[in-house]
Write a structure and sequence with these properties.
The protein is α+β, with helices and mostly antiparallel strands. The chain has 4 helices and 7 strands. The protein has a 7-stranded mixed sheet with strand order 1-2-3-4-5-7-6, sandwiched between helices. The longest helix has 19 residues. The chain starts with a strand and ends with a strand. The chain binds coenzyme A (COA).
Length: 138
């Protein structure tokens, strides 16, 4: 099981940006300039560690959205993404959010469904990648 830490942007920034850059910019071709945005300093950031090394990240926005879920390719399918997602959901629940919402890449919809999220509405494109809104009432 990965060790998950919930951190401020200041503390997560170096490692979270490195992981996000590898996954979203290098692997998925998302433009570098939309990968980092002005909301990061207001978010709670999860970092997942395996053997002491950061291998995954995700963030909880002030409005209860979860986003920027990314696990380094070599570490996928071992529960790292689930650990990150569950920590962020727990945090949102503690904070009194009524629900968490996310914009899922369509390929990852089954992953979020396993955690209780339900898909809503139509598929839409963001950064040329098909997405679908998903919600989890808390
Ligand atoms: C989506 C992501 C965060 C999941 O992290 P992960 O560490 O692989 O997830 P876990 O190991 O906890 O869970 C994996 C489970 O979800 C399923 N799953 C994960 N990614 C999936 C995908 N792209 N399509 C279908 N199922 C997927 C796996 O089949 C696995 O189920 P299993 O345990 O029965 O084999 C990771 O695949 C990732 O970083 N992908 C690239 C970036 C991305 O697309 N982020 C999501 C943006 S919305």
């Amino acid at each position: 099981m990965p060790r998950i830490e919930l951190l401020s942007w200041e503390d997560a920034r170096a490692e979270a940006s490195r992981i996000r850059f590898k996954v979203f910019v290098e692997e998925q071709g998302v433009p570098r300039e939309i990968e980092l945005d002005a909301i990061d300093p207001q978010c709670i950031h999860a970092l997942a560690f395996e053997d002491g090394r950061p291998v995954g990240t995700g963030r909880l926005l002030p409005d209860g959205h979860i986003g920027r879920m990314a696990v380094l390719e070599d570490w996928r399918g071992r529960g790292v993404g689930s650990g990150i997602l569950e920590s962020l959901i727990r945090k949102a629940r503690e904070r009194g959010e009524a629900e968490v919402v996310l914009s899922a890449q369509v390929h990852a919809v089954p992953f979020y469904k396993r955690h209780g999220f339900k898909a809503m509405g139509e598929i839409y494109e963001e950064a040329r990648i098909p997405h679908r809104t998903m919600r989890l009432p808390l």
